[in-house]
Amino acid sequence: MSKTTIPRGGITADAIDATLIADDAISEEHLDATAITGTTALTVEPATTDEIIISDAGTLKRMDLSLLMGQPSFFAVADGNQGSIANNTWTKINLGSEVFDAGGTFASSRFTPGIAGFYIIHFGCYIANIDDGERVEVKLYKNGSEYTYGAHKHYSPLANADGMITSSTCVQMDNDDYIELYAQHNEGASETAYASRTYMFGYKTLGTL
C-alpha cells in the first residue's frame, strides 16, 4: 500500500496524531467557524486563570485573562465607628466589612493584589467635631510607609463641623505589595472615624498607564 492510499476500512480513530501532521500544516484554510461555534459556550464571567491564545509578533502564546480584566478588585468599609483617632497621629483605619472582594485579596484592612500592575484606589474617611481652621487628613500607606501621591487634606471652615474627606490615586504595585488607609487630625483630643462614610475600594487597570 502506498503512502497516499487510504485503507479500505477507512482511518481508525486517533490514527492521525502529531507525528503525522507537519509543522505549520494547520492554518486558517483548514479551520472552520464551527471550531468556535460548535464548542460549549461559557455562560459565566471567565476566571482570571482562564487562558486564550494570541499571536505575539507571529508567535503563538497563551495568555491568562487576568491581564485583560479589572481584577482583582475590592470595596471595603468600616464595620463600626473607630474612636481612637489620636491628635496629630497617623492611625490605621479599620475596614472590617467587605462589600465585595473579587480575587480574595483584601484582608485585615489591607489590600494585597497578588497580580502586579497599576491600581486605581478611591478612599474616604469621616471625622466629626473639627473646629474652624483645624484639619483632617487621609493617606494611603504602601508597604507600611506613606504613599506620596495618595493623600488629601481638608481644613474645616466651621466649628464642630463634619470632616468628610475623599480622594483617589493610582498605585503601581507588585503582587506582594500592600496598601492600607490611614487618617489623622489636629482637633486636640482623640476623635471618632464614623463607619457610615469611611471606605476604600480599588481595581486593576487594563495594561499600563
Commentary on this structure:
The protein is an all-beta fold and 209 residues long. It has 2 domains: 18-68, no CATH class; 73-204, Jelly Rolls, CATH 2.60.120. 2% of the residues lie in helices and 45% in strands. It contains 1 helix and 15 strands. Strands 6-3-15-9-12 form a 5-stranded antiparallel sheet, with no helix packed on it. Strand 7 (106-107) and strand 8 form a beta hairpin. The longest helix has 4 residues, at 34-37. It is rod-shaped, with a radius of gyration of 27 Å.
Output the keywords.
single chain; 209 residues; mainly beta; Jelly Rolls; 5-stranded antiparallel beta sheet; 4-stranded antiparallel beta sheet; 1 helix
Secondary structure layout plus pairing:
Layout: H1 34-37, E1 51-56, E2 59-64, E3 73-77, E4 82-85, E5 91-92, E6 97-102, E7 106-107, E8 110-111, E9 117-130, E10 135-142, E11 145-155, E12 161-173, E13 179-185, E14 191-193, E15 199-204
Antiparallel strand pairs: 1-2, 3-6, 3-15, 4-14, 5-13, 7-8, 9-12, 9-15, 10-11, 10-13
Structure in a nutshell:
The protein is built from one helix and 15 strands; from the N terminus they run αβββββββββββββββ.
